[in-house]
Amino acid sequence: MSSENVVIKDRLSKLRAKMAEYGIDYYMMPTSDFHNSEYSADFFKVREYFCGFDGSNGTLVVGQDFAGMWTDGRYFIQAENQMKGTGVELYKMMNPGVPTIEEYLFQNMKEGQTLGFDGRVVSTSIGEKLEKKLSAKKISLKIDKDLAEEVWTDRPALPCHDMYVLPDELCGKSFGEKLSDVREAMKKVNAKAHLLSKLDDICWLTNIRGNDVECNPVILAYAYITMDKFILFVQDKEVTDEARAYCDKVGIELKDYHEIMSFISGASFDGDVLYDKRNTNFLTYKTLSAKADELKVALVNKKDPTELMKAVKNDTELKNIREVYLRDSAKLTEFIYWVKHNVGKVEMTEYTAAEKLDSMRAELPGFIELSFPTISAYNANAAMAHYEATKDNAAEVKAQGMLLVDSGGTYMGGTTDVTRTIVVGEISDEIKKHYTATVAGMLQMADALFLEGCTGRNLDVYARRPLWDIGIDYNHGTGHGIGYILNVHEGPHSLRWRYAEGVSEAVLEPGMIVSDEPGVYIEGSHGIRIENIIEVVERSENEYGKFLGFDHLTYAPIDLEAIDTRYMKPEHVELLNKYHKMVYDKVSPLIQDEAVKEWLKEATRAI
Amino acid sequence: MSSENVVIKDRLSKLRAKMAEYGIDYYMMPTSDFHNSEYSADFFKVREYFCGFDGSNGTLVVGQDFAGMWTDGRYFIQAENQMKGTGVELYKMMNPGVPTIEEYLFQNMKEGQTLGFDGRVVSTSIGEKLEKKLSAKKISLKIDKDLAEEVWTDRPALPCHDMYVLPDELCGKSFGEKLSDVREAMKKVNAKAHLLSKLDDICWLTNIRGNDVECNPVILAYAYITMDKFILFVQDKEVTDEARAYCDKVGIELKDYHEIMSFISGASFDGDVLYDKRNTNFLTYKTLSAKADELKVALVNKKDPTELMKAVKNDTELKNIREVYLRDSAKLTEFIYWVKHNVGKVEMTEYTAAEKLDSMRAELPGFIELSFPTISAYNANAAMAHYEATKDNAAEVKAQGMLLVDSGGTYMGGTTDVTRTIVVGEISDEIKKHYTATVAGMLQMADALFLEGCTGRNLDVYARRPLWDIGIDYNHGTGHGIGYILNVHEGPHSLRWRYAEGVSEAVLEPGMIVSDEPGVYIEGSHGIRIENIIEVVERSENEYGKFLGFDHLTYAPIDLEAIDTRYMKPEHVELLNKYHKMVYDKVSPLIQDEAVKEWLKEATRAI
């Protein structure tokens, strides 16, 4: 029999006592910060604290006689192990017969009971769905209480790091200029005020950066914008003297981060309020909408205007991005050389290889941080979508097969993202076929020529077709937008093909940058992904409109050892040779080591 | 000075007297029948009767001191000529400074006034827009009065032709089977009743056909469906004995077409009512929604379930369609031969050429009618999107340039649609370049291979890319669905690329058929369109899903005299040769005349 986990049981019983105290019958703990960021800091690991499971996705629901944790297929085994002896039941999401949280609560809660959760870590769409479903049973919600606050005594602090200001010359556009654009957009929808909750949008708009979310150079903040005011809600402690002087100068009024809810409750909107429901947490939304009702103004739910402005890079940003990508590509080239020449000779694991690359990147001028934790996956591990090697759990990289490395950095001048699958030894003919088709898809997408008005849905087949032709698909989008000294994933545009009723798309515009990353994932055998970042550029204009295309931003060699021209159309060979010539011409001047340069010449030869 | 048109002026003054009698200040007359059919019968030509303009698009608005007619750029000159001396002002739609009808009425009508129109010939979307805009000025609508009825004494009758019943063996599925499917779909949205207004959907569902709309083998009808009843509203006079016996047998209750509104007003829905707002006219919608309010049931606005069922052809339909398309292709081949061998020798105009083709089609077994009026356009005329040659106004076809012919027939076994652009003499190198790119686009689209889940928006670039590569686009969709012994245009699927927020798309499914018709239109010079109909077929299935592709249904030669391989990729040449081999193999056995057969061999030779 497994022993009891008394630590967790004790925590749960303290939580239940607090629930009783506040009249909460069920308490829900999902996995998110207040801004639905890609990474949550330790402060937000409430679910982990109360059940022991530390995977990246999971929601814990606790009642007086019940505790259940919902997670997806990636984590069934891990969750079962980590929750042993806690009494917490595992609910395997998407498995037949397993209720969703909503269904479970609807079936098990009684009329008149209360569901509690911290409304700041729940998205408005989920909050509204729960509210609607449970209201049929007269169940009420209590969303303004974070019970962990009172139980978790040694809780880590909310992230709070010094903010810093980017010079206008680096941003290409001052805060003042950006703010006028936002105000113009507000006028277009007749909004007198705008509440902005999205961290990278706030940072882009203010030209401020920070370090409050892992790998995202952002500050925890809200912004409130009217025609004559700009209020930034941010933790007092992270405002440096330099930042305060900047804010004074450009007219940013500072208020403490924790004042946001009381500010909204006490606000006096003199007209409609623009907000973006997708980016606004449930408590903020409810507070905002109660206030709007009271003041008899409307809430205008539209995409944050900053989203599109941020996505279309300006000339300064583009110039810096192009340079940063070249330097980053040169560094990756040196890393590929290092892997190929050291595999089988030095001790190398997925983890140490990633460490090597990370340390090489850190040498580059203007390096700030990794843009995401480096993915380093050897052979069959590369077939797992969410594989993460750790120091203690990493495969040895031997002189056989392939190593997939997906990595990037954020620099003063841009944020990068690139994937190469590196041949480190013998590979099968089947792998060559898959590799060649992946490369053909990546190059064919980058070679697209299209009329302005196209979205990623029109073009995605270019990347997939060579794989579809051999009966293979990859279960992820082809591409995402990338921030400028910001998050590695941003919208509104993307390269995806699947249709979903009502999902909005964004037209591709010159100045947008997007990843182009087809792949092949064969369970238990191998995984291949080749990712370049490409820039939307104008090719020509005539009476039919603007014809657009893509320029590569990434220039790193594609492994010719895995290319078999028997699986390529003549135009794919041509595209590869053309690309490789550019790689050598652009990257070799940035490489000091003659041996690497020599190798690169061979690695980029025409085939 | 132009003389007065006393006939029109007299009609307008009688209309104004009636308007005064019914308290209507402005009366609006658009161009539509009660079901928004593609063609309106003479009965519906009210606008033409009151202003003289007979183009295919126009809306007349009459006040006591005002008469204005709104039409689009195709018709400015024609409208001006036809309305001379009538006192009716021309409003040039989309021209700068010209108000829309909605804007005009909002600006010129006074508070408390009444706008009248026949709510049966106005779509619900337009009706609702007018209602919303004008309600701000307290203007009311009177939509249940067709004033033409009382003024237009020699008005043609409402179309009323004998209906007929298709045998179940020809339809592949009986009315009873189709009805169960519809009832299943109703249950899925919790509807107890369903009002169906779309004529081709009603005909598809009942296996009944008629002749009430030009080129559409449909009856004027409404259908009302509950879990135990099926009521067909149709003019008594068109119910033949055979049709009545069929209806009795399969459980179709007949009521007169004109009873529909009073039926709805007197109905007793015992649950929610499914309807499709896109297909329901404004009067029907308002009557239905008033009744639903009264009975406290909801209206469920969803796509008519029949739309998708009708679009996915069953095996019997597909078998018949394939045969019909072969015969139709053979006939078109004979016509192309006739054109090429008679041009410059016999008198030939665009109109007589079309007559020739129409009469040839009429010889085919099971011929019912043309599926649309044949488009026959010579040289520069082919560049005009809506060009229509008439007996008195048709260009002579000389032995120079090209003749574009877009045509089709409805047969007992299918409805066809095909376009070929036929070289009749010398053409320029530029034309060859355009022609070759058009053909490459058509063939490349048909060669698509894609995972189930794709819609036309994912694939449209295949047809356009060869044209985009030479800086050309065509300002229409690439493809539309086609009915089975029904309308030549049907949804829900299509091949189009442009994104519009909220517009719904349909996933391509095996059994759907769709046109593939890229083109080039150079004003004042030439027009090219090549149209095949293609069928969605399953190619393979594996763990990634079903891989789909297209099979051609149309097999008619593509004019090699206009093909220049310098403008083709190797795979385009391969596709053309492969297609031409199939054309010869499939079509030559259907051709009797040895000379034609001989010519076809040469016309489909590998290049």
TrEMBL record, chains A, B:
- Domain Creatinase N-terminal: from-to ranges: 11-138
Q: Which residues form the Peptidase M24 domain?
A: 320-537
Q: Name one GO cellular component term.
A: cytoplasm
Keywords assigned by UniProt, alphabetized: Hydrolase, Metal-binding
Q: Which GO terms describe its molecular function?
A: metal ion binding; metalloaminopeptidase activity
Is GTP-binding found in the keyword set? no
Q: Which domain of life is it from?
A: Bacteria
Q: Give start and end of each Peptidase M24 C-terminal domain.
A: 546-607
Classification via Pfam families: Creatinase_N, Creatinase_N_2, Peptidase_M24, Peptidase_M24_C
Q: Give the UniProt family note.
A: Belongs to the peptidase M24B family.
User: Under what name is this protein listed?
Assistant: Metallopeptidase M24 family
Annotated organism of origin: Butyrivibrio proteoclasticus (strain ATCC 51982 / DSM 14932 / B316) (Clostridium proteoclasticum)
